[in-house]
Amino acid sequence: MFVYLKISRNFACLNSTNTASASMLNISDVMPGQVWNSQDQCKAALGPTYTPVINNQLCEQLKCNKARLYNPVNTHPALDGTYCKPDKWCIQGVCVAWAGAIALPSTQSAAWSQWEEGSCKESCVNNSIAVKPWIRECEGENVELSCSGIGPSAIYDNCSATVTTAQKCIAANIVPIETFAISVCNESNILDSSVSKDPYLYINIDEALACKVHCKAANSATTYLDVHETFPDGTPCFITGDVQQFCQGGVCSALAVSDGGWTAWTVSVSCDGKCQDETMQTPKKVYTRSCTNPPPANTGTTCQGANSNSSEICPDLKLCGKGWHTVPSSIATLLSIAFVLLLYQKHCHS
Questions:
Q1: Whole-model pTM above 0.85?
Q2: For residue 294, is the peptide bond before it cis, meaning its omega torsion is within 30 degrees of 0?
Q3: DSSP labels for 270-335?
Q4: 190-209: per-residue pLDDT in tens?
Q5: 184 with 215: CB under 8 angstroms?
Q6: CA 76, CA 45: separation in Å to the nearest integer?
Q7: Is 103 helix (H, G, I), strand (E, B) or coil?
Q8: What do you get for the CA distance between the two ends of the chain, in Å?
């Protein structure tokens, strides 16, 4: 637990005596691991880029990994109700069968979520580029979250040409790569005295380690410690031939060209609540789609065709409103004439 607190960099909150904002979360009789799965727990403990390591010790000690970091971080025993194996969940640190549960958990096969667009921004590190991340997550309920082999989970688009003034770094804040690493090592030294304040850079030396900040050990000038921090996205990290690679989510790689693809059509304007107005113009159902599956990035082609379709007429509509005043004027006039004639005929016969 101490290691987790040091790595999370959020342990100072435990020293707070302010309980004014404390609140009790009522989740009824639902197991906490069913509310926050192992992926949610890693994100809450260490940050949005961490994912769980699924192994036989998950219930006893949940390990989380960042991108391709080679040293997973121990956090805490998985919450009760966390999926651990088919038809099993964690209870008090042990992976046990669901049998006997009051309500058996539902399952949903693992599948990619929709792509979510991040913001374009500069990293404030020398010679870096501005990048905009597109992220999707492998989602499912009470199954192994494995969507590998069906495309990437992140696409980083070079947006240097479109970065706004608000997204640009102030010139005074732009620092050399080594200065950024020194600041990380200084912070790590405060949390752990076995880490020195001196960084060791793998930039342009080792592609696999180039985007991970390493600090020299305090007791050895030749031992380099991974402090579980990465260089900002867009930091130049390695050159292969004539191709410059950049840090992307803690991984050093070339920017991938992505051709845009359409999402499925969805209803953006439905026929629910629609009625026929006096103009006799019939409402239509509107379908829309977006060129984000995947999004076009790094000179990739954009989608061809329209992003909306409103050719489907809403069927079986009733007249709008209540009473005669909502009837189209032409029909209302004819009804009025018929009513007058009926009264006249009745008067004549009498």
A1: no
A2: yes
A3: -STT--B-TT-PPPEEEEE--S-SS--BTTPPPPPS-SEEEEEEPPSPPBSSSSGGGS-HHHHHHH
A4: 989 999 999 999 999 999 99
A5: yes
A6: 9
A7: coil
A8: 100
